[in-house]
Write a structure and sequence with these properties.
Rossmann fold; 23 strands; nine-stranded mixed β-sheet; 517 residues; alpha/beta; GMP Synthetase, Chain A, domain 3; binds xanthosine-5'-monophosphate; globular
Length: 517
């Protein structure tokens, strides 16, 4: 394991992902973790991340220099580089000489461990105020910039390395190569961490945890719960039962995808609860978005709990017990909720399907060490169909929050048809990977006049909301080709009764959220 010490910027997760892209397993630890605890984890290498602080700022995160004395290879980046420099007797000045963004780096030792095989001048991403003017004794300066005399150094004997810039960001040329040089050449690690290993390891861990007991898993139709279920199914087979609550708010073909494709690919035991009528009855007359969300969440939990207790009762009748609940919690959730170390709780877990914590089960979370892209790779490895593994995000409350106005069966059917056409055309145009998602929204309370055939119509508009995004926190509207938009518009107005207008949402997030409700 490579441990990434998180000094409190957003960079630690990115570094951990880059290390894994180099096929070396990595985990993140907070900078508040005592050094002996970090070393007790037996890391093969340690990376000190960047951070928002100046090493001279009051309350700036510090580092016990014992971390450099343990014989473990260490790579300091940005703030981590400056900490390393000061801890080992180098000089870091608050010169006011700032560098932000793309900066040319001059490599003075092209044959050095980190820079071997990379050009003498490369463009790197900087973000710092303080600058290192003298490397610690015993260190070789390997690169500089116009502003910073010491932009990289290394001590090959002690296996200590540092760069002032951010090798983990995409804007840094050769950043991944420099990181890999540290891992392979500096720390002597081999690229051995693969999704095959992950699957084997998790299967063994799940078997050890669950033993001969039984487990249940709520499937939402999303990637995470599907991959978690498939992993557990591979480990314990028929001891697992999955529950899929069909609330009638899914898109066309979606429930079938879970019921047929997923079962076909995994052979999982599936309990499908048809709860459409129940959800529609609960939603009758409700127009307020927050109220809709609350009702859908509440009904979902009730239905799931009932299904779970039925499974428990059936198992009990056979003298077995259901002790475990499978959840698709991912590594970013774990890190953001304190990494299990009891430190800063920035955001509490939001678990699959929003199941309540007081469900009386122990949790099985086979994805809690993985990033989203790794979950997709594991899904592929497990033989899940592409349609499930590469699925775009879809909100838990489903089409219920894509009908502006009251949710009725007729409106859902109409929206399902319009949505299916949009998805079909986007897929046909090869745009699925270019967009993050494309909500299709029915403005059920709005009407406009149209003319179709020889007659006047008075129908509803459909909104297309294609967005591009990296994490759904911010988003921009996708500039889709006009021909594709035209085709979608023509087909929807021709094929879907009661829709006589298609409009495009050209709002970024912020200010607009991705969904309309
Ligand atoms: P907004 O509308 O907040 O959406 O910009 C951000 C992302 O989250 C999805 N979304 C949800 N997902 N349950 C979910 O599982 C929800 O209640 C929910 N609301 C929004 C949305 O599709 C987008 O990807």
């Amino acid at each position: 394991t490579v441990l990434v010490v998180d000094f409190g910027a957003q960079y630690a997760q990115l570094i951990a992902r880059r290390v894994r892209e180099a096929r070396v397993y990595s985990e993140i630890v907070p900078s508040t973790m005592p050094v002996d605890e970090i070393l007790a984890k037996g890391p093969k290498a340690i990376i000190l991340s960047g951070g928002p602080s100046s090493v001279y700022a009051d309350g700036a995160p510090a580092l016990d220099r014992a971390i450099f004395e343990a014989g473990v290879p260490v790579f300091g980046m940005c703030y981590g580089f400056q900490l390393m420099a000061t801890a080992l007797g180098g000089t870091v000045d608050n010169t006011g000489a700032r560098e932000y963004g793309r900066t040319p780096l001059k490599v003075s030792k092209p044959g050095s461990t980190l820079f071997e095989g990379t050009p003498a001048e490369q463009s790197v991403w900087m973000s710092h105020g303080d600058a290192c003017s003298a490397a610690p004794a015993g260190f070789t300066v390997t690169a500089s910039t116009g502003v910073v005399p010491v932009a990289a150094f290394e001590n090959d004997e002690r296996k200590l390395y540092g760069v002032q810039y951010h090798p983990e960001v995409l804007h840094t040329e050769h950043g991944q190569q420099v990181l890999e040089h540290f891992l392979y050449r500096g720390a002597g690690l081999r690229p051995q961490w693969t999704t095959t290993n992950v699957v084997d390891e998790q299967v063994a861990a799940i078997r050890a945890q669950v033993g001969s007991a039984r487990a249940i898993c709520g499937l939402s139709g999303g990637v995470d719960s599907a991959v978690a279920a498939a992993l557990v199914q591979k480990a314990i087979g028929s001891q697992l039962t999955c529950v899929y609550v069909d609330h009638g708010l899914m898109r066309k073909g979606e429930s079938e995808q879970v019921e047929k494709d997923f079962v076909a690919a995994t052979g999982v035991q599936l309990k499908v609860v048809d709860a459409e009528e129940r959800f529609l009855a609960a939603l009758a007359g409700v127009c307020d978005p927050e109220e809709k969300r609350k009702i859908i969440g509440r009904e979902f939990i009730r239905v799931f709990e009932q299904a779970a207790s039925e499974i428990v009762a059936e198992a009990g009748a056979h003298g077995e017990s259901v002790e475990f609940l499978v959840q698709g919690t991912l590594y970013p959730d774990v890190v953001e909720s304190g990494g299990g170390t009891g430190t800063a709780n920035i955001k509490s877990h939001h678990n699959v399907g929003g199941l309540p914590e007081d469900l009386q089960f122990a949790l099985v979370e086979p994805l809690r060490k993985l990033f989203k892209d790794e979950v997709r790779m594991v899904g592929q490895e497990l033989g899940l169909p592409e349609e499930i593994v590469q699925r775009q995000p879809f909100p838990g409350p489903g089409l219920g929050i894509r009908i502006v106005g009251e949710v009725t069966k007729a409106r859902l059917d109409l929206l399902r048809d319009a949505d299916a056409i949009a998805r079909e055309e986007l897929t046909a145009a090869g745009l699925d990977r270019d967009i993050w998602q494309c909500p299709v929204v029915l403005l059920a309370d709005v009407r406009s006049v149209g003319v179709q055939g020889d007659g006047r119509t008075y129908g509803h508009p459909i909104v297309l909301r294609p967005v591009s995004s990296e994490d759904a926190m911010t988003a921009d509207w996708s500039r889709l080709p006009y021909e594709v938009l035209a085709k979608i518009s023509t087909r929807i107005t021709n094929e879907v009764a009661d829709v006589n207008r298609v409009v495009l949402d050209v709002t970024s997030k912020p200010p607009g959220t991705i969904e309309w409700e």
